[in-house]
Automatic annotation (TrEMBL):
UniProt protein name: Probable membrane transporter protein
Organism: Ornithinicoccus hortensis
Membrane topology: Multi-pass membrane protein
Family according to the record: Belongs to the 4-toluene sulfonate uptake permease (TSUP) (TC 2.A.102) family.
Cellular component, GO, one term: plasma membrane
Metal-binding as UniProt keyword: no
Keyword terms, alphabetized: Cell membrane, Membrane, Transmembrane, Transmembrane helix, Transport
Transmembrane regions: 80-99, 105-122, 166-183, 195-217, 237-255
Localization in the cell: Cell membrane
Length: 263
């Protein structure tokens, strides 16, 4: 990036971050808004600068939504913290590998997974409307949650789009959480993955600090409002937003895949 961004551009980045923070807090997937906004707003920036600045902004929103969810939903930290710890480790490893693996190799795989996630959620309308925990109170429950954190955390460090949505779906589909409880635990794990990625990106000098901090404040506001909205509206509302966000991801990544193979 060269030169200072204009006031108009900063306002647009702030609005994008506010919207992304709200979506991320409700069900994950705010990167669908924030990453393209940064790419369009700063076409001269290196890809690593875009990724690093996006992570800086996102960590504000995930931090405040994690606190809001904890205060209002009280997720079980005996599950959430081990999951977040392994998500942190996975994200560190993914971020270290990110420069070695071409993103275009993953778009078709992500597309297939997202279509499967969306179709499964639509086919089971009762899924996630209430908690019906599997292996609750056992070591197996915590181990499976930790495995979810590690796998999705590795993906977040490596690529990133849809991390929050994948965490929510895994907690609902594999462990039987309701969407609201799943979102609360997903935010704690997503905060860990964002912090881990910044541990790699900041020493590299990749963050655009002025833009990232401004967007971070807006993302924080969006995260706070989104978490409060989700808590007030309940699992049915979160499920509806989840389906919409996954659908948007399918369209976006589907289009990217078409362009990749035809362009």
């Amino acid at each position: 990036m060269t030169g200072d961004p204009s006031l108009g551009l900063l306002v647009l980045m702030g609005l994008a971050a506010l919207t992304a923070g709200w979506i991320d807090a409700v069900v994950g997937g705010g990167g669908l808004v924030q990453l393209p906004a940064l790419m369009v707003g700063f076409p001269a920036a290196a890809p690593v600068q875009i990724l690093a600045t996006n992570k800086l902004s996102s960590v504000f929103g995930t931090a405040v939504s994690s606190v809001t969810y904890y205060r209002r939903v009280r997720p079980d930290l005996r599950t959430a913290l081990p999951m977040a710890g392994l998500a942190f480790v996975g994200s560190l490893g993914g971020a270290l590998l990110a420069s070695r693996i071409p993103k275009e190799a993953f778009n078709p795989i992500i597309l297939v997974v997202l279509v499967g996630v969306g179709a499964y959620t639509l086919a089971k309308p009762s899924m996630g409307t209430m908690s019906a925990l599997r292996f609750h109170g056992s070591r197996r429950h915590v181990v499976l949650a930790g495995l979810v954190g590690f796998v999705v955390g590795s993906y977040d460090g490596l690529l990133g789009p849809g991390t929050g949505s994948f965490l929510v779906f895994a907690l609902v589909g594999l462990l039987g959480y309701g969407f609201l409880q799943a979102s609360a635990k997903a935010k704690i794990a997503n905060l860990a993955t964002n912090l881990a990625a910044l541990c790699i990106f900041i020493p590299m000098g990749a963050v655009m600090w002025k833009v990232g901090l401004l967007m971070g404040l807006c993302n924080l506001a969006g995260g706070y409002l989104g978490a409060r909205t989700a808590v007030a509206r309940g699992s049915g509302f979160v499920r509806a937003v989840f389906v919409v966000v996954v659908g948007a991801f399918v369209l976006k990544i589907g289009w990217d895949t078409v362009v990749q193979f035809t362009g």
